Each structure stands twice: as structure tokens, then as C-alpha cells.
Amino acid sequence: METFKNLDEKIQNLRRQVSDTRNKLAQLTVELQEAESLSNVGVPEGQPTSQRRTQKSAEYKKYGRQLIVPEIGVLGQGRLKSTAVLIIGIGGLGCPAAAYLAGAGAGRIGLVDGDLVETSNLHRQILHNVETIGTAKVHSAMIYLQRLNPDVRYIPHAEGLTPENAIEIFNGYDIILDCTDNPATRYLISDTAVVLRKPLISASALRTEGQLMVLNSPPRPPGDPMGGPCYRCVFPKPPPADSVLSCGEGGILGPVVGVMGVLQALEAIKVIVADASSADTRAEKAPSLLLFSAFSDQQFRAVRLRPRRAKCAACSAEATVTKESLLSGSLDYIQFCGISNPVNILSEEERISAHEYKRLQEGVIKDHLLIDVRDEIQFRLVSLSGSINIPFSQIQSGISRNPDGLASSVKSNQFQTFDLDGLPSSLPPHAPIYVVCRFGNDSQLAVRRMKEAGLDQGGKRYIGDIKGGLRAWREEVDYQWPEY
Description:
single chain; eight-stranded mixed sheet; six-stranded mixed sheet; globular
């Protein structure tokens, strides 16, 4: 009889084989599409009239409900069929956007994403399913989209977008959808769209809110004031790195990101089917930022955006972002956005491993305090025994030593009361304090902030964090620890 360990290894091996097979199937599908295209399968020139009529009849039946919409019509449908759309990020935004553009009959759809499907994706990323976990997202999406509309040509780019490959990837497409979730990539996408003169539909979503912009539309050359503003026009400077939350850190409600992805598809269709005259005058229509808040009484509101900035680094006459600067790799988007993830600001002496804390918890040092700096919602989901919750946002905003400060609002899972220093009254004066978070980033920042506030009593009290946070706890100590 196989041991549990052998069974686990067998399961993991089978999963890898299944994932490899799916990836191979997706690649064969792409090769088949290319071969069919080369052999003029579809509606080749010189095809008998009866066959062309049959082809058109099939398209009328498939797209009939949108063909009779005045804003689309036969001309609009033809433009959709001849347009190539690039979707960057096949996640919560990219999945619904891709599905509706495929369903609408876009001619070619490029899919850019270097990630694999994970279980945590499935509640919002509707093109993926439990059977494609571990598969490249672009290949998982292609399986779904092929079944939805096999007449569209799908092109996978199973890689992350970089300054070195962005221009090569963008060159084959007419319109770009930014469905990513980090500032560095957003600036790169916008800059490349401006350089190559392609309209950009940009959206984002976090928790219960989202926003949407149509940028660089019309896509005029840098310096032309009639062109649409770019991402740098709206956000000349990136947000502070510490303030940026991903969906994994801040949370996301599936229908919220779904709404924003569907709106991206809608805006893309509007740009594609616009009459030539309306496309030329699009700059006269004030660009706007659409804001969505799921739990507000007024869910949608639009904020008018200014036109192109006179000194924008990307789209003005003084632009420093060029095709040459992108290709040379001289533009460091990571440095520009100040991203330092994972955080690494504490010395080795200020950090302990999850294993080390487990031994400490078992009695090596009984008198100590463990502070969990995740937000209250996450703390209620699951927490280490004996820990107290002081959200990082409160520590970041300032540690107070008076009754009106942080101390008065802190509670533990034992409902202890706290003295004016914000610490349990039962804690000895020099007892060590350990800090934990989800991934080991916020805990380091919290330790630094607490020391700056003097809670280490000039070095007399040890304050440190658990390396890798609760993720490390699951990997090193408790394999049954809930992962969310």
C-alpha cells in the first residue's frame, strides 16, 4: 500500500503531466489556426458566390443581434473582424474583456500573461477553471475562447511585458487593453501605446471599486494637442510604493472586476466601430475617468480629464520616452515607481524564521508579544494563537502613547485591555515583541516604525518580525494553515 507521501508525489506528478498536455494542446491549436490561415480556409478570394453567401449567412446568424444595433451594423461588424486587439493581463479584467471581444467577432485577439492559473484566481477570472490550474493563463484562456468562437484567431504571448519585448508584441495589433494590476507595467503599456500610436483602454479594480479610462484616443503623434491624453498625463508621478495594494493584498470582489472588464470590452468596441469622421473629432470630446463603487448609492460617476499635458514625458513635444529609449532598456519602470517587493529593510538580527518562532511559542520565551499587522478582516479569518491585532495602517499613521491614540483601539483575540503604551499591562517591561503579517513585507515596515516611535526603549526591548510572514508559517510549520 502506497504511503501518503508517495501518493502525494504521484498526484503532483500527474498534475504536472496534465498541465504540460494542456499547454501542448493549446500550442497545437495555434499551429492549426496558422495552417488553416495559410491554406485560405474560410472565405478565400475567388470563392464561388454560393459559398461566400453561406459564409455570410453563418456570420449573420452568429452576430445578428448586434448587427441590427444602429451603432454597429454591417460596417461596424466588418471593422471588428479586421481589427487585432491585444489584451495584457488575463486575470479578473482580461478574462471578461477577452470573452466579450471574442463573442463580438474581433478578428485577432492577442493574450499576454506570464502567470499560471492558481486556485485563488477562479472566483473572478472566468476563463479559467479547476481543470486548468497550473496551466499558463494564456493557454487556459484559449481553451475557453476557442469553444466560444473558433472563428477568431487567438495569439498567445506566455510572457510578462518588458521594455525589451513591448514594441515587438504591440506591433501586430490595432488597439490595446491594459488589464494589469501594477503601476510599473501600466506606465510601460501607456508609453508603448503612445510611441506606436495605438489607442489604449485602461482599467483597474480593488476591493469594491474600479476605474476606467480611454487613453491616447485619437492616437496622434507626440506633441499634437488633438491627441488623447496618456497615462502619464493623468498620473505624472506614480503613487507611493507603500500605498499600492494588489488584489492578493487588498482583496477584490469578483463582480466588481468583472464589471470593469466588460466595460473595457465595450469601450474597445466603441473605438473600433467609430465612423472615420467621429474618430477624427474624438479629441474634441473631453476624455473622462469613469469611477465605479459597488456599495455606493451612486455606483457610477465620471470625472472630466484634462487634455494632453504640455510637458508630458511621453506625449508632448518635449517627450523623452521614445522608441529608442524603450528598446535600449534605459527606462527603469521599477525604479520609477519605487517598487521594492519583497521588502528587505531589516537586519538578520531583527528577524526570525517561522520555525524559530514556533520553538519560542512552545516555551523557550513565554513572556513575549506577537503583533499581527494585517487588517482586521484578515485577522478574523485566521490568526496565530496569542497574537493581537494592530493593523499596519494604524502603525503607519502614527503610534500614540496617550488614551486617544492607537492603544485605546487595539484588541486581541483574548480581549485583553491595554495600558497607555499600547501593550498588554501583563507584559514585562523588557519582554520581546514579534511582528507578523501575511507575506513578511508590512511586518518589516511596522518594526521599523515601532522602533522609530521608541517602543524598543532604546534597544532594551527586542522588536523583530517573522520572515516570510504567515505564508512561511504554512510552508515551514503548519501545512494545514488556511491559504487565502
